[in-house]
Amino acid sequence: MANFWYLAALGGRLWNLRQPGKQKKATGENKMNTYQAKRIPLRDLLTALGCVPQRENKGELWYLSPFRQEGAPSFKVSVTGNAWYDFGLGKGGNIIDFAMQYFQVSSVAAALSELERCMGSSASIAPPPSAPALRPTIELKDDLKITKIQSLQNKALTDYLQSRGIAVEVARPYVQEMYYTRSKKHFFALAFSTQSGGWELRNRYFKGSAGSKDISIIQPASVIEDAAIMVFEGFMDFMSYLMWKKVTVPPLPVLVLNSTAMAEKAISTIRDRGIQTVHLCLDHDASGREVTAQFQQQLSGVNVVDQSALYAGHKDFNEFLQKQRQPELS
Asked: Which of 46, 73, 121, 169 is the most exposed place for a label (fewest CB within 10 A)?
């Protein structure tokens, strides 16, 4: 539990370091200009946004359009020219044109601001070697390196949350945004911390993790006794529950599995804490049913309540939430 709140606090401290006014005074760092922006390979920006090329042919990369959902790639990037063209839109241009279209901004200055937010760790806009190192690099397993963790603000990530029915003010206490490199490429994603110091990572195009896979526990300050606990399969389902209840703090402690493979670890934790009632909010699929049966069989003497009837007819709590929101959006 200590790791969860420590890492949350760490993210908060890093966010304070990145506030525009404070950063300028500390380092004298200038805002990105058009020259710097045009040095960023479009391929790297698209990778950071979670876009993966579907095919490559003679220096041309073909992607599913980042501007809409589609089944066949219609978005082309010229690697040598560092330019793009979307055949569905009939539009193209350089990286600044792309940023204006993708982030839905109308000025070059706003596009540059979004690019700096996305690619702040890019070598093309990094401070000179003599500048103070305000962003510590955290190395996890494989070649993933975390370069920045901060409070939610990236429009691509907040838009993704909203598309899943999650309000930013509900998500902000529980998830942050992480910027990291892997194989010398830049990425960013929503980050939800685990008990062992790892992270669950999500963006519109990517679902993965960094560090050791583990459960996450959220302990509301107002709850003193551990008589009962709620168990969710993933953090999106947990936040969907908060949205459904119209609260920002759960009424009970929460355990997020982050993977059904963590069921044994969760059961052991529940036993160790002497919890008497477990409310399961797992997926309506074979894996969810299997884990529900596992909890019921292995937690003898504990009242294990399957709460999945709350979202009957839907795969999980998030799908249920999104269907509930459709009348509001129509």
From this structure: 169
